[in-house]
Amino acid sequence: MTTKLPENSRDWSADSWDENVRWLRKEAMDCRICPHHCKIDRREEVGRCHAPFEPMVSSCNLHFGEEPPISGERGSGTIFFTWCNLRCVFCQNYPISQQGVGNAITVEKLAENMLSLQKRGAHNINFVSPTHYSHAAGEAILMARRRGLTIPIVWNSNGYERIETLKRLEGLIDIYLPDLKYCEDRPARKLSGAPKYWEVATRALTEMQRQVGELELDEEGVAVKGLLVRHLVLPGELSGTKKVLSFLADNLGKQTYVSLMSQYFPAHKAPDIPEVSRRITAAEYNRALEALEDSGLENGFAQDEYLEEE
User: Fold this and answer.
1) Of 213, 50, 21, which Cα lies nearest the Cα of 134?
2) How far is CA 262 from CA 104, 271, 288, in A?
3) CB-based burial of residue 297 (10 Å sphere; 0-12 exposed, 13-18 middle, 19+ buried)?
4) Most exposed among 9, 15, 42, 257, judged by the fewest C-beta atoms under 10 Å?
5) Closest to 46 (Cα-Cα) out of 28, 58, 25
6) Which of 1-5, 58-62, 154-158, 217-221 is the least confident region?
7) Which of 30-39, 199-208, 300-309 has the lowest mean pLDDT?
8) Is the pLDDT reported for residue 157 higher than 80?
9) Are 258 and 231 in contact (CB under 8 A)?
10) What pTM did the predictor assign?
């Protein structure tokens, strides 16, 4: 059985979709597509993310390692974009996100790959780190929909999003899968180069939920629409887990799905930064689980692998 959208009444031929795509392209050309607002001609030079104007990807394939409602049994049709609008010192995929390992791709080829993943049985199309290529992603989604794509689109991002960009994506994105990384500005700036991360990301998640609502699952337990928030527990409680979970429960609702992740390890530059040079401990993750229970959040996924011995 193919995972399908909860409703297929959207008129993909409507001019309003093309207007939104044109807006996204213009903002990307002027490098204002994300909260950094580099304001340079991205066709001629690169901004903080180092990404060119035309999209680059590192892989397009079925992926089985996401949360159960995303991967299902047949896998998520995952498209990893190259570069990223954050510079996380501990990024596990840093060759892709910060060294640009990948290849240029046309929007038309991107749409073809989406349709190919659907034919291979993917439950969804999962755009990983798409923010800086919002213009290309939006155009490819529209092109693929007009050519017969029926499975949901997952926007798998770091949460550092511009509200105006998200609003232009409304209706194109079915499932938002954002991170909520930090609740304090200092670690967000130091570890990810993300000024005002909490303010920006919480506004972005609120907009995401407005668009898609709570996570909806089909009869196979696979997501067809809605919001699923990821939170990676960092050493020394640098991620502010208690405040993050309280925000989700109090502002987005106790039915919000949360993935409480324990797999942090000191990748990339992290081994040389004392605050993040180790894995988290079992005690730290247990405190995160207690915060999850105290928050009243009712849906989510917990994992206790990869923990460091006390």
Assistant:
1) 21
2) 33, 17, 9
3) buried
4) 9
5) 28
6) 1-5
7) 300-309
8) yes
9) yes
10) 0.95
